[in-house]
Amino acid sequence: MRMISNPFRAVGLSHKDLTDVPYPSINADAPQALLARCPHAGITPLVDAPTVAIACNVAQVLIKDERTRMGLGSFKALGAAYVIASDAAKGKARGATYVTASAGNHGLSVAAGAAAFGARSVIFLAQTVPEVFAARLRDMGAEVVRAGANYEASMDAAMQNAAETGAILLSDSSWVGYTSRPHVLMEGYLALMAEVFTQIDSPPTHLFLQAGVGGLAGACAALARATWGDATRITVVEPDAAPCLIASVEAGAPIETTGPSSAMGRLDCKVPSLIALKGLARDADYFMTVSEAEGAAGADQSAAHGFKSTPSGAAGIAGLLTADRTVLGLDAASRVLIILSEQAET
């Protein structure tokens, strides 16, 4: 475990690559209005988990359980499908082809959105992505292409395909010159936090947010800050093998990291989303990493208390279990919010 306090908290990170990059949206009304018209949408539960709280020696652990989100098994259902639905509302989705790379769940959202609105989807997967995800994508009508040894290589292939075919690139990350669609995509995630605000009596003292490229963490942190102010300490949790956000904050600039593949596959991203990085540098209090063993222990602990997930989905619990309690101000009176971001693999 490695942890740092964010030196850019409230001030923000100034770097030339971030100059024209927008901060994450805090307009939760837009995705909520669209979801209200979706027959598959439903509010996911916020569960009080007293046995988890006892195991972690805090007063309360609240788990926002995204495993049933729109039948897709993760919070990602709120992202790419929201972008495609927004395109459809403008008459731009039907007949279009959406291309992306995915570590699994983002691809499911692209495939579901494309199928719902008469579009085609092509999903590029790295060789490390489990075949179970590829099979689910094909069952939803997507074309699956295996490309590269990691997420970054599969994204390069997707970008090349979009450039050659004229298809619409729909990434869940953002970089210089590519921010419009990922900004809308992250806005879709705000529906999750907007639900939390109606389900919780008072702000939690602590919020743990797992991150790959940082889209979920960036969106949730931005809206939490706008709503709860400084009442909540926000900690971003990444794998040791893919510490792109903590490394970028330490460097004061976007950094591409290297490392082995992580069992926290959906968090195994070596390059941060610039929108997420810009937002988290302003909004997060702490950044930390967890080892492969710590990630597995988080998933085991989660399952032991009735919340079966993956090391990626339960990374917030892993963070809570391994964090430096003194640095974060965690004690027996703390009330902690965690997002269980995906269902267990089958």
Alpha-carbon distance between the two ends: 28 Å
Strands, count: 11
> What is the averaged pLDDT score?
91
Radius of gyration: 18 Å
Structural category: alpha/beta
Element-level helix/strand string: EHEHEHEHEHEHEHEHEHHEHHHE
Low-confidence stretches are none
User: Can you count the helices?
Assistant: 13
Task: Describe the strand arrangement of the main beta sheet, using strand numbers.
Answer: 1-10-9-8-11-3-2
Largest β sheet strand count, sense and barrel closure: 7 strands, mixed
Question: What kind of assembly state do the chains in view correspond to?
Answer: single chain
Give the overall shape, derived from the CA principal axes: globular
Summarize the amount of helix as a percent range: 25-40%
Indicate the proportion of strand residues: 15-25%
What can you tell me about this protein's structure?
The chain has 346 residues and is an alpha/beta fold. It contains 13 helices and eleven strands. The protein has helices at 29-35, 50-56, 80-89, 105-116, 131-139, 151-165, 180-199, 215-228, 244-251, 274-283, 292-304, 315-322, 325-328, and strands spanning 2-5, 46-48, 60-65, 97-102, 120-125, 143-146, 168-169, 206-210, 233-239, 286-290, 335-340. The chain has a seven-stranded mixed β-sheet with strand order 1-10-9-8-11-3-2, with helices on both faces. A four-stranded parallel β-sheet has the order 6-5-4-7, with helices on both faces. The longest helix is centred in the middle third of the chain and has 20 residues, at 180-199. The mean pLDDT is 91.
